[in-house]
Specification:
- Helix content is 36%, strand content 15%.
- With 417 residues, it is α/β, with parallel strands linked by helices.
Length: 417
């Protein structure tokens, strides 16, 4: 299938061609037509499979057929982090370059007055983090009464980060009649419950088993004692000097790891929520252009880090939440490229490792580093049959139509792969 067969208009096809894109990814193929038809959508796909374009392209096309109401935006995209907001805004600008639609992104960590100035000039598409959006609305500089399309990008992460109250407040300020789209790599039971209150007879698109990891990413666990992790990390980085994204659980640990690597002569920088937006932009740009060899990040930065052909991700510490592992390693192996995900795991993290293997339904290969074999070995990997995924249709059929008309059947509402 080509993008032309999906019914996209010429300005969008031209922008795609200029970027070298000719064929849609599976998530794009299964989502774009439904969004163009005006359906609510609940879509899951592994990171790096083109989710952003899957909602950006049809959103741009639908908005191109109408007009703005004064300065009020017509579409709202909510994201959990500043980095992801900036990434989505860049995609909208890229794909919509031949359309007369204005877009803008707002988020915390920077001065609000320049954002107020742009909003007062009028925009069509607003990309925002929930907190800054509510700040702007409270200051009466943002009219949300004309939103036609609402997108929750990385919706599960917004819930994990405690944005549920903010999302509900935002939802209460939006028109009842609108199209709502939820996109994410994982969907927990909690977010499915929230979706029932926000979406109307949604079409569900699952292009991969829920919480699975991409087949383009090779995964490996390196057992190592907790006190020798820094030594092990330096060994891995220097053995194969590929550009590397390292994940830690805390900001303090991110700073410590980056400082240790820098002292060893490795160009490393840390990025996390305590860093200023200017610093985060500078470091991220340095990593993208290759000036920074190793970027050390916390989980909050794992969404929105879109680096072309990033060869390797290393988990210096395993995340507390197993789903975050999927998002972390999804930074590599994107757009069909191969990638490597290594995890430095000590015996104290055996519980987290078991949870990750159970969630992703796999046994991850173990390989010790010579000279750094752990004194406290990891527990044996879990055995047994792979767990069975529940039917994708089980969460459907509960929608209540407020738009009128006959309820669609489950078969028509679900487009599971």
């Amino acid at each position: 299938m080509t993008f032309n067969e999906l019914g996209l208009i010429k300005p969008l096809l031209s922008a795609l061609s200029e970027q070298g894109y000719t064929k849609p990814t599976l998530i794009q193929e299964k989502s774009i037509s439904s969004i163009l038809d005006g359906h609510d959508l609940m879509a899951t796909a592994q990171t790096g499979t083109g989710k952003t374009a899957a909602f950006t392209l049809p959103m741009l096309q639908r908005l191109s057929k109408g007009e703005r109401h004064g300065t009020a935006p017509r579409a709202l995209v909510l994201t959990p982090t500043r980095e992801l907001a900036a990434q989505v805004q860049e995609s909208i600008r890229t794909y919509g370059k031949h359309l007369k639609l204005r877009s803008f992104s707002v988020f915390g960590g920077v001065k609000i007055n320049p954002q107020i100035k742009v909003l007062r000039q009028g925009i069509d598409i607003l990309v925002a983090t929930p907190g800054r959006l509510l700040d702007l609305h409270q200051q009466k500089v943002l009219d949300m009464n004309h939103i036609e399309i609402l997108v929750l990008d990385e919706a599960d992460r917004m819930l994990d980060m405690g944005f549920i109250p903010d999302i509900k407040r935002i939802q209460s300020r939006l028109p009842q009649e609108k199209q709502t789209l939820l996109f994410s790599a994982t969907f927990s039971a909690d977010i499915r419950k929230l979706a029932e209150t926000m979406l109307i007879e949604p079409i569900q698109v699952d292009v991969a088993p829920r919480n699975s990891t991409a087949i383009t990413v090779s995964q490996k666990v390196i057992p190592v004692d907790k006190g020798r992790k820094l030594e092990a990390l330096r060994e891995v980085v220097t053995q194969n000097q590929n550009q590397t994204l390292v994940f830690t659980r805390t900001k303090h640990c991110a700073n410590k790891v980056a400082k240790s690597l820098s002292k060893s002569g490795i160009d490393a920088e840390a990025i996390h929520g305590n860093k200023s937006q200017a610093h985060r932009n500078r470091v991220l740009n340095g990593f993208k252009n290759g000036r920074v060899a190793v970027l050390v990040a916390t989980d909050i930065a794992s969404r929105g880090l879109d680096i072309d052909q990033l060869p390797r991700v290393i988990n210096f510490e395993l995340p507390h939440v197993a789903e975050d592992y999927v998002h972390r390693i999804g930074r590599t192996g994107r757009a069909g490229h191969s990638g490597e995900a290594l995890s430095l795991v000590c015996s104290e993290e055996a519980k987290q490792l078991h949870a990750i293997e159970k969630l992703s339904n796999q046994n991850i290969e173990r390989e010790e580093l010579k000279g750094l074999e752990p004194k406290s070995p990891l527990a044996e990997r879990r055995e047994g049959k792979p767990r069975q995924e529940k039917s994708a249709n089980s969460a459907q059929g509960r929608g209540r139509s407020r738009r009128g008309g006959r309820r669609r059947s489950n078969a028509n509402r679900s487009k599971a792969a």
